[in-house]
Write a structure and sequence with these properties.
- The chain is α+β, with helices and mostly antiparallel strands and 89 residues long.
- It has 3 helices and 4 strands.
Length: 89
């Protein structure tokens, strides 16, 4: 990442069912403790269709993990339609 001047901004993982919160284990085992880092949780082991309202999007704040509301998600996250058609996030 450093060689390409890129920065890790999020961790993506899946859960087996529709619950997309962060478990205690998820919250404690992040790859970054930097404020503003995101943890994205995709339900049903990442199987499509992917819809913003079904993803768990969590941001690390000064007060711990905050799960973005549907409105916050819609304002801050945009899935590329081409990516959705190709089956990749």
């Amino acid at each position: 990442l450093r060689a390409r001047e890129l920065h890790l901004i999020a961790l993506l993982h899946t859960h087996p069912a529709s619950w997309v919160g962060l478990s205690e284990i998820d919250a404690k085992n992040q790859v970054s403790s930097r404020r503003g880092f995101w943890s994205l949780v995709v339900p049903h082991y990442g199987q499509p269709p992917w819809e913003l309202q079904t993803l768990g999007i969590h941001e690390l704040t000064d007060h711990g993990w905050h799960q973005l509301t549907i409105q916050e998600t819609q304002e801050r996250v945009h899935l590329n339609e081409e990516d959705q058609l190709n089956g990749s996030l």
